[in-house]
Amino acid sequence: PVSCGLERGRFLISDVPFPGSAVTVLKRPPFCPAKLGGAALGDRGGHPGVVAAVAVLLEAACGHVLLTRRAATLRHFPNVWVPPGGHLEPGEELVTAGLRELAEETGLHLEPGTFSWRLLGLWESLFPPTLSWGPPRCHHIVTYLGLRSAEPRQQLQARLCPSPCEVSAVAWLEPLVLEAIAATEDGAEGSGSGLESGSGSFPGELPATVGITELSADGFRSSQIPTGTLLRRAPARGPDLERVSTGTKFALGRW
């Protein structure tokens, strides 16, 4: 448990409360390089120290949650499913940053009074996420926010206009699938390294596939991917796989 909040335009995390702070949980994966002693960072892309970021789990009125697949051209976590999110600008409020990132990545603008929000937790993220992939190059603390919209999924979907520079596909996932994703925690105790490359097993009541909307040169197209793709664990070595990020699984568990 930690206290967090903005102080003098910067995001502050403390083990004691301070004026305006909120109490939440801070977590990192068991295989996090910082936890294993690999704290020395290489090229951090011009961002010294730890960078504050925010990510938004947008829940439609029907209970479905929006996830996006990161573009294959991105340097960090390409082809990985995550909520919309990005860096927190100096002095920017958490919700303001989350709404900005949501709009920039998906084209969705939420008007005041049409949603509620809550703080889900903080996640320590390094890339690469494990030392077997090389020394860390960037270091973030991601604040996950849960936003519940009063609008149905169909209305939100109709306004989607994802940025092809950042997003290659979007999906509205039902609670049953989301709960199964959250249960496949990377690095969970008793699973060896926890960095397994298999597609995962899942209960029979889950659908075999999930519907997604992919971006193409001609616009949008509806497609299907195996549900097992979203239940994969991070691979221990070799190229990364299309999967849900470890931090997103943490946030879904909190959600």
From TrEMBL:
Catalytic reaction annotation: a 5'-end (N(7)-methyl 5'-triphosphoguanosine)-ribonucleoside in mRNA + H2O = N(7)-methyl-GDP + a 5'-end phospho-ribonucleoside in mRNA + 2 H(+)
Cofactor(s) of this protein: Mn(2+); Mg(2+)
Recorded family membership: Belongs to the Nudix hydrolase family.
Keyword hit for Nucleotide-binding: no
PANTHER family hit by this protein: NUCLEOSIDE DIPHOSPHATE-LINKED MOIETY X MOTIF 17, NUDIX HYDROLASE, NUDC SUBFAMILY
UniProt keyword annotation of Cytoplasm present: no
Limits of the Nudix hydrolase domain: 45-195
Protein name, as recorded: m7GpppN-mRNA hydrolase NUDT17
GO process terms (BP): NAD+ catabolic process; NADP+ catabolic process
One GO MF term attached to the UniProt entry: metal ion binding
GO cellular component: cytosol; peroxisome
Biological role: Acts as a decapping enzyme capable of hydrolyzing monomethylated capped RNAs (in vitro). Hydrolyzes monomethylated capped RNA after alpha and beta phosphates to form N(7)-methyl-GDP. Shows low activity towards unmethylated capped RNA.
E.C. number: 3.6.1.62
UniProt cross-references to InterPro entries, sorted A to Z: NAD-cap_RNA_hydrolase_NudC (IPR050241), Nudix_hydrolase (IPR020476), NUDIX_hydrolase-like_dom_sf (IPR015797), NUDIX_hydrolase_dom (IPR000086), Nudt17_dom (IPR033716)
Keywords: Hydrolase, Magnesium, Manganese, Metal-binding
Domain of life: Eukaryota
Enzyme class: hydrolase
